[in-house]
Write a structure and sequence with these properties.
The chain has 295 residues and is of the alpha/beta class. The chain has helices spanning 3-6, 23-35, 47-52, 72-85, 100-104, 107-116, 161-167, 181-193, 207-210, 217-226, 251-255, 266-290, and strands spanning 39-42, 64-65, 92-98, 120-126, 172-176, 197-203, 233-236, 240-243. Strands 2-1-3-4-6-5-7-8 form an 8-stranded mixed β-sheet, sandwiched between helices. It is globular. The mean pLDDT is 94.
Length: 295
């Protein structure tokens, strides 16, 4: 872990409203520290909005604007243009939105901003469901997962936000996890140096919604990466794919601690393993196609 990155001042105050053991707050704290004090945040209705606190109060040490759930990317676009008009080109605009406000309700707005290549960093805190309102499913909820609205398990697969944004040819997309902190810190540092629409997708195991112990968030995040359920990667300009993790454990190891998967049959676990393996092979092909041709 880079000591220079760890020396960044804390941009989130203690005493915020996150659940005990929640890595949503932990992840946001590291992103904010990496961006530094010259930044403004857009936070739509979400767990992060509760953590940050109701306006005009905030647990963040930077200005925060809370728009409607569907309007995060539009609000960030407007703030960026207002800052540029003031000559504040170096000030970072960062969005902290959940998967409901990104994969679902805010996707049209994000797509429009990406098509225009608006200059902001969009951080999706992906806990794979509408956890703030009772753990209902979103289109980020994985196949077979129990939620409040899928008591028998979700019948469809998780939407691939990375592929959707790669199709927009935005300058930079990355996945990261607080369970692999050095990788997360490096990616935040890189995002800070880039311009245009940048997406940072962070997996956030929800202790209550996933049915985890209060101290299991980071361990579960690591299992997601190690099982291949959440590969660590970067995509540049929609074309160049780089992989920063390896698949070293079976998906069953990742599923076992989570209450939302305890209804699965052995056949369903095997089916999920097949999905993970197929997705991993596809990702490796994309990485191979990104390599320069041999002379």
């Amino acid at each position: 872990m880079d000591p220079a990155l760890n020396a960044q001042p804390a941009m989130m105050c203690p005493g915020h409203a996150a659940c005990p053991g929640c890595i949503d707050a932990l992840s946001a704290r590291h992103v904010l520290a990496g961006l530094g004090p010259d930044a403004v945040a857009v936070i739509p209705p979400s767990c992060m909005a509760i953590i940050a606190g109701p306006q005009p109060y905030s647990s963040l040490k930077i200005p925060v604007y809370q728009p409607t759930l569907e309007a995060s990317a539009a609000a960030a676009s407007g703030l960026r243009r207002a800052l540029d008009a003031q000559g504040r080109h170096a000030t970072q605009v960062v969005v902290f939105a959940g998967d409901g406000g990104t994969y679902d309700i805010g996707l049209q707005c994000l797509s429009s901003a990406a098509e225009r290549n608006e200059d902001f960093l969009y951080v999706c805190l992906d806990n794979e469901g509408y956890m703030n309102t009772g753990a209902q499913k979103s289109s980020s909820t994985p196949h077979y997962a129990w939620t409040g609205s899928t008591p028998a398990g979700k019948s469809s697969r998780k939407k691939s936000l990375v592929d959707i944004m790669a199709a927009h040819r935005v300058p930079w997309i990355a996945t990261a996890s607080a369970g692999h902190l050095a990788d997360l810190q490096r990616k935040v540092a890189r995002a800070r140096t880039l311009r245009g629409t940048r997406l940072l997708l962070l997996l956030i195991p929800c202790l209550d919604g996933w049915g985890l112990d209060e101290d299991a968030g980071l361990a579960t995040a690591r299992l997601a990466v190690d099982s291949g359920a959440f590969p660590l990667l970067e995509v540049e300009d929609g074309e160049r794919w780089t992989l920063q993790s390896q698949k070293t454990r079976p998906i069953a190891d990742y599923l076992a601690p989570q209450r939302r998967y305890r209804h699965l049959t052995p056949a369903q676990v095997a089916a999920l393993q097949d999905e993970i393996d197929a997705g991993w092979q596809r990702l490796q092909r994309l990485v191979a196609m990104s390599l320069p041709a041999a002379a």
